[in-house]
Amino acid sequence: MPLDLQTISDRMEIDDLLVRYSRAIDTKDFAELENLFTPDGEYDAGSLGHPKSAKAVREMIEGAIGGLDATMHLVAKSLIDVDGDSAEVRTYLISQHIRESTPGPVKHYSIGAEYADRVVRTADGWKFAYRRLDRMWKEGDRAVIVRD
Predict the structure, then answer these.
(1) What pLDDT sits at residue 146?
(2) What is the b/e burial string over 116-142, where b = at least 16 CB atoms within 10 angstroms of the residue's CB?
(3) Which fold has domain 5-145?
(4) Which of 27, 64, 88, 128 is deepest in the core (most CB within 10 A)?
(5) Helices and strands, number each (H, E), in the chain
(6) 36 φ/ψ angles, rounded to the nearest 5 degrees
(7) Domain SnoaL-like: where (predicted)?
(8) Mean pLDDT in runs of 10 for the chain (148 residues)?
(9) Are strands 86-98 and 70-83 parallel, antiparallel or unpaired?
(10) In terms of pTM, does the model score above 0.85?
């Protein structure tokens, strides 16, 4: 089925939103991270938490990774189903977490997961209204991500 120009543009903008999210986390630009969610946006991160506002999402993520030496969130191509001013998005992810002060020889913790998102068009562009992290596998030392 051929895509019209608006759908192509929307999909490119949504893809950019996904990349900006990963970059905001990995550069610890938590103000930008908060800006990527609608004010009432929620994030179901399983055992990490389920905040229900952009500010609360920022606080959860900042608390979880703020003390790490580095992270890298690699996202794969997404399945994007645009329906007017909203879209459902599914994206695979591999995230690396590094804390050099972790006791023992292993200083990293990695997860493979899938994001399930609902994004909406706003006056400021596409934003996350809902994000869910579905973990699929893990590797390394979980102590890396345990908060001090």
Answers:
(1) 84
(2) ebbbebeeeebbbbbbbbeeeeeebbe
(3) Nuclear Transport Factor 2; Chain: A, (3.10.450)
(4) 128
(5) 3, 5
(6) -80, -10
(7) 6-132
(8) 88 97 97 98 95 98 94 96 97 97 92 98 98 97 84
(9) antiparallel
(10) yes
The residue to which tokens 């459902």 are assigned: 88
The closest alpha carbon to 92, from 72, 108, 66, 74, belongs to 74
What would the two tokens of residue 66 be? Answer: 């703020």
22 token code pair: 């990963």
Task: Identify whether the C-beta of residue 97 lies closer than 8 Å to the C-beta of residue 68.
Answer: yes
What's the token pair of residue 64? 């979880």
DSSP letter (8 states) at residue 67: T
How would DSSP label each residue in 93-143?
A: EEEEEE-TTSSSS--EEEEEEEEEEEEEEETTEEEEEEEEEEEEEEEE-GG
Element (H, E) at 31: helix 30-35
Domain segments of the chain: what residues?
A: 5-145
Tokens found for residue 34: 């908060």
Closest Cα partner for 119 from 26, 50, 41, 8? 41
